[in-house]
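Subject: complex prediction, re-run

Hi both,

The earlier run crashed halfway through, so I resubmitted it with identical inputs.
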Amino acid sequence: MKFGVVVFPGSNCDADCFHVVDKVLGQPAEYLWHGQEDLKGVDCVVLPGGFSYGDYLRTGAIARFSPLMDKVVEFANQGGFVLGICNGFQILTEIGLLPGALVRNPSLQFQCHNTYLRVERTDTPFTGSFTDKQIIQVPIAHGEGSYFADPATIERLENQGQIVFRYCDAAGAVTPEANPNGSLHNIAGIINEKGNVLGMMPHPERCSEEILGNVDGRLLFESLVKGQQGGESR
Amino acid sequence: MFKAIITVNFKKSILDPQGTAVLKALKSMGYSGVEDVRVGKHIEVSLEAENIDKAKEQLKEMCDKLLSNPVIEEYKVDVAEVR
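This time it finished cleanly. Structure:
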């Protein structure tokens, strides 16, 4: 599976994402500069974390108008895989590929620590390598990661099973104490209705290698790769 | 030439942690009468347009597309002709 990691001015997790897909997974990868319009034939677009355009105005607000993003929307509408991590998730909500918004953490703190997540679905292209309700540990690093949407949208996300990751405690209980940023319904990651666009605040690329002491995040990237291999052999 | 002052605020239903922090600070400074604080954005846009209606039309579009996020924010536009 060929991955494309988008680079905006202010992205700072692009090299980490590239490293994971290239060196850890051994997949072909390309950097995609935001100012051009060529997706270079990739199968999965990764919108990495960081502070695109300095987070000016609102997180992700200006990045969504980059020339490349029109192509990413087109690509997503045609069923291409899009993974938005942290700032990438914020961009996906700003551009409307995912519903809701990420607002400032009520604590007013930049939260930078490990969190437990419960994998709510394993039947998506992003989560096939996890086990049902698996509890994983993935770090967060954000000041504006509090997921918000109006009640009707939240209900729709719940009913359609679009909530893929939820903040939980070590035992998997979804509690207010385990919620690091006041996200509604402990939402850490959601998927679109079609199931090809995933956004999440935690950073799977920061926990994908033994040397980092945690490989839970690798399963997400592996899910994509294995899914494609499975599809080809069928 | 027109000059617009755009005020963007969180919707009432959205928690405004910045406003809450300022509220707490004001109270701790002794302003016990302060009941609520909301912190928003003040954006000034100068633009050329055929007339004030055209200017308003453009400004509304700018607010809807970029300057505010309708999911969480509301905005107000005050526009006047300037020389």
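Chain B touches chain A at residues 10, 14-15, 17-18, 20-21, 41, 66-67, 69, 71-72 (CB under 8 Å).

- K.
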